[in-house]
TrEMBL record:
Pfam family membership, one: Orn_Arg_deC_N
Cofactors: pyridoxal 5'-phosphate
InterPro entries: Ala_racemase/Decarboxylase_C, De-COase2_N, Orn/DAP/Arg_de-COase, Orn_de-COase, PLP-binding_barrel
Protein name from the UniProt record: Orn/DAP/Arg decarboxylase 2 N-terminal domain-containing protein
Organism placement in taxonomy: Eukaryota, Fungi, Dikarya, Ascomycota, Pezizomycotina
Catalytic residue list: 412
Alphabetically ordered keywords of this record: Decarboxylase, Lyase, Pyridoxal phosphate
Modified residues (N6-(pyridoxal phosphate)lysine): 85
Record organism: Arthrobotrys oligospora (strain ATCC 24927 / CBS 115.81 / DSM 1491)
Spans annotated as Disordered: 366-390
Keyword Ribonucleoprotein: no
Family indicated by similarity: Belongs to the Orn/Lys/Arg decarboxylase class-II family.
Length: 471
């Protein structure tokens, strides 16, 4: 696979001289580039078919295969339970179910558990990893014998006692960044510990409660936060896990499961895996040697993010005035309420590549002239072909001048902003396309129908040929 630009290149506060381009589309994969070209060429702006401007997804299974191979090589002792919430695309799930690595699944609700069971996955290969479950969902899990479930409060223990007394409970403890920072390019993109987990100090008390209720607690779980850039957090929390392991022994539990959660990214995976391996050797080496411990993890983003690319078009423009510092405003077919929920989270969205499409609405396209001014008096901009690079049959804006833009989603809500301060190539027009790579996590599963927009999109699947679906 071709080398890639840095993951999550921050776009905020970039001056023109710091613009991280030029971006070649081959940053994703050549197969993906071919499909982008094919899709853009297939759209005839003059036909104006309903929804032809909408975002489409391109999924390259070679990237997923590669991610799994790397995991198996660098973390052979850690069984993967893919976090379904990250991206429950049915073909992705099927692919993972059939993969020889024997992947398990982390589910967060009744629907996710039911979906995974419907794919003939054994109930033993599911962790119901939501520490605060609806009682009826616990009851459902009991009917399906999905025993492994996390908890972090005593009320949850009462609920489990009432509806699934044979459950195999896993105590979730609170993760915290040992070196917290306000810098959006450090730490975790999403700090899950704000919501879940017991402190070490409270762990003895809650385990005593579980013991009193006669519940079976089999192990520990933590989550260092989604998109964790500080790999030392793994070291730190594996050390803490060992301390709670001892507390559990004193309470009368012999734990057998250590769930190191998610947080993994592809960009720092080697470092993260190395930190995990060293900490496991240091803290749990004896138990690993004796075969007395199952180490599991719940990666989601690591698997799904890099394989999914979104291509979405410019549907409207508002010219800014450079003299007054007004930015040019670009409106694209996807936004915060559709596939680009990532826009809400600093550091989550990768910098887009812009591809030239068919432009049916520029002054130049509508006026029968190629001169710099028309008979009607409308100023017509000469196209700056020097700024276009031809790649695989389509043009990307790779060189030439840059200008400040704001990039907006299609709904009428002013919150629906994709990039507030973007430095992008000059001359973007309606009909051009934005390509967002690495968008497979927490994206298409978060689409809404807000403002009447659709929650179905065309998807190109690349896996020994290209298959198209709408989902
Ligand atoms: C319990 C649990 N496990 C795994 C994940 C996935 O983690 P990541 O996004 O870091 O891959 C999440 C994300 O919210 C989670 O809540």
């Amino acid at each position: 696979m071709a080398s890639r630009v840095q993951e999550n290149t921050p776009y905020h506060r970039l001056g023109t001289e710091q613009w991280p381009g030029p971006f070649s589309l081959s940053n994703v994969s050549t197969a993906t580039d071919d499909v982008i070209a094919r899709h853009i060429q297939s759209i005839d702006a003059t036909e104006c078919d309903l929804y032809s401007e909408d975002g489409v997804w391109i999924v390259d299974f070679a990237i997923i295969r590669n991610q799994l191979e790397i995991w198996e090589r660098l973390l052979p002792r850690v069984k993967m339970f893919y976090a379904v919430k990250t991206n429950p695309n049915p073909r992705l799930l099927k692919y993972l179910v059939n993969h020889p690595m024997k992947i398990g699944f982390d589910c967060a609700s009744h629907t996710e558990v039911a979906e995974i069971l419907s794919l003939s996955v054994s109930s033993d290969d599911i962790i119901y990893a939501n520490p605060c479950k609806a009682p009826s969902h616990i009851r459902y899990a009991s009917t399906k014998n999905v025993k492994k479930m996390t908890f972090d409060n005593t009320t949850e223990l009462y609920k489990i006692k009432a509806h699934f007394p044979d459950a195999e409970c896993i105590l979730r403890f609170k993760a915290h960044d040992p070196t917290p920072s306000n810098n959006p390019s450090e730490g975790a993109l999403y700090e899950l510990s704000k919501k879940y987990g017991v402190t070490i100090d409270y762990s003895r008390e809650i385990l005593l409660q579980a013991k009193k209720l006669g519940l079976n607690v089999i192990g520990l779980a933590f989550h260092v936060g989604s998109g964790q850039r500080n790999v030392r957090t793994y070291t730190h929390h594996i050390e803490e896990a060992r301390r709670i392991w001892e507390i559990a022994r004193e309470v009368g539990y012999t734990f057998t499961v250590l769930d190191i959660g998610g947080g993994f990214m592809y960009s720092n995976f080697e470092e993260a895996a190395s930190a995990v391996n060293t900490a496991l050797d240091n803290e749990f080496g004896d138990m690993i040697e004796q075969g007395g411990i199952d180490i599991v993890a719940e990666p989601g983003r690591y698997v799904s993010a890099p394989a999914f690319t979104l291509v979405t078009s410019v549907i409207a423009m508002r010219e800014g005035k450079e003299e007054t510092g007004e930015k040019r405003m670009v409106y694209i077919a996807d936004g915060l309420y559709s596939n680009i929920n990532a826009a809400f989270w600093p550091g989550e969205l990768t910098y887009p590549t812009v591809v030239k499409g068919r432009r049916a609405y520029t002054a130049k396209s509508t006026l029968p002239t190629s001169s710099a001014s028309s008979d009607s008096g409308i100023e017509v901009e000469e196209e700056d072909n020097g700024s276009m690079d031809q790649e695989g049959g389509f043009s990307t804006f790779m060189r030439g001048g840059l200008q400040e833009y704001s990039v907006w989603g299609p709904t009428c809500d002013c919150m629906d902003i994709v990039i507030e301060d973007a430095v992008l190539p000059k001359g973007i027009e309606v009909g051009d396309w934005f390509v967002f790579k690495d968008l497979g996590a927490y994206s298409f599963s978060m689409r809404t129908t807000f403002n009447g927009f659709r929650t179905s999109h065309k998807i190109y699947y690349i896996n020994e040929g290209v298959d198209i679906d709408v989902i």
